[in-house]
Structure to design on (395 residues):
């Protein structure tokens, strides 16, 4: 592994920053302390700072040489509404809030790269360090774009990195095309006629109708969608009634839809609407659908992915650069990839052996109360950012 020497020298300082952020998690659009910390560190290293994009977003800009080329590097800052089970020193100080997805590490990795790039400036062009709020369900990337991110910080390309538990430390994974799915939510309301459960003939039972609707939804996946198009419809909640001897007036079904293409999503939404509006009347009931498109699919661009792969192979060796298996999880970096060419890749976080004494009993997986970012990944991730900049903006 060919890490940057100066980053190795100050990695303990970056580790302390990461652990401080972990101990003080903030939820989406509430990242005020984290934003202050990031902006303060950037200013300390002489990096001009732009604040307020997306509410709590921070953008640091480093210019060197005379080239008009520009590059964006993105890290997310928000935590999750989760109670941490770990008991080590840097555990969350805020009940019900936890950095369980590694955004504390992503922020620290980019800060490590920022310090080196500001000091050495061994490149020709402009680097925008994008510290984004509200990745966890808040579409903070789109909020920053709406607030003029790419007008105020023009980028020829953008790159993002996420830690990946279960993949060995020192390994990376990426691929062109779809890598994460779109995220969409639906709520179906079935309206019937309530009454005494002992006299169902006087009622139109929405619970019975809801069960038929749930079964019918899966026919979209098995009989309407092309078999080669990956998609998921998951019903995750059904709510109806308050008493065992009363048939309710309504039943509410909700869940998520995930796809890799807009075409598959259009098909699914259209078929869902047909089922919801057409099936309940067969039972004397009525149905309505509310369908919300949250995050689009995360689709890597061919050229930028190939470029990132070359940088990674030089950094960690070809054997440690893997092909990423797409996941049905979602990521709001997708919005940035819709606006600019770029690549989103994964960095191995290990199996959890890095956790110090006092960690929870659960696995070290994302969105898990026993998770903790692997501090040994910090110099690796920071070194990747530096080498990416030096190669993309070569003199």
């Amino acid at each position: 592994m060919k890490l940057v020497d100066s980053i190795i020298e100050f990695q303990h300082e970056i580790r302390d920053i990461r652990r401080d952020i972990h101990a003080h998690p903030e939820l989406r659009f509430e990242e005020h302390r984290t934003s202050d910390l990031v902006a303060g560190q950037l200013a300390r290293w002489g990096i001009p700072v732009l604040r307020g994009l997306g509410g709590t977003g921070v953008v640091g800009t480093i210019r060197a040489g005379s080239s008009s080329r520009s590059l964006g590097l993105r890290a997310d800052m928000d935590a999750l509404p989760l109670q941490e089970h770990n008991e080590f020193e840097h555990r969350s100080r805020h009940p019900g809030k936890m950095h369980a997805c590694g955004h504390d590490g992503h922020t620290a990795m980019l800060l490590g790269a920022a310090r080196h790039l500001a000091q050495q400036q061994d490149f020709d062009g402009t680097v925008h360090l994008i510290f984004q709020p509200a990745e966890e369900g808040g579409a903070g990337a789109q909020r920053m774009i709406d607030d003029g991110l790419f007008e105020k910080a023009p980028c020829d390309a953008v790159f993002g990195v996420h830690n990946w538990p279960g993949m060995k430390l020192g390994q990376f994974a990426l691929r062109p095309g779809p890598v994460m799915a779109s995220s969409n939510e639906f709520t179906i309301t079935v309206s019937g006629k309530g009454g005494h459960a002992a006299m169902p003939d006087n009622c139109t039972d929405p619970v019975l109708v809801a069960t038929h609707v749930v079964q019918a939804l899966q026919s979209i996946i098995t009989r309407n969608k092309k078999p080669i198009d990956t998609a998921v419809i998951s019903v995750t909640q059904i709510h109806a009634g308050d008493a065992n001897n009363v048939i309710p007036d309504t039943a509410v079904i909700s869940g998520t839809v995930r796809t890799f293409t807009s075409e598959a999503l259009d098909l699914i939404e259209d078929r869902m609407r047909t089922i919801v509006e057409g099936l309940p009347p067969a039972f004397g009931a009525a149905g309505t659908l509310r369908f919300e498109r949250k995050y689009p699919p995360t689709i890597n661009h061919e050229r930028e992915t190939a470029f990132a792969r070359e940088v990674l192979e030089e950094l960690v060796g070809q054997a440690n650069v893997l092909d990423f298996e797409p996941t049905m999880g979602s990521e709001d970096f997708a919005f940035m990839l819709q606006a600019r060419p770029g690549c989103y890749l994964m960095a191995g976080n290990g199996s959890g052996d890095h956790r110090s004494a006092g960690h929870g009993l659960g696995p070290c997986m994302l969105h898990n109360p026993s998770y903790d970012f692997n501090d040994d990944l910090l110099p690796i991730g920071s070194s990747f950012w530096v080498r990416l900049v030096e190669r993309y903006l070569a003199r």
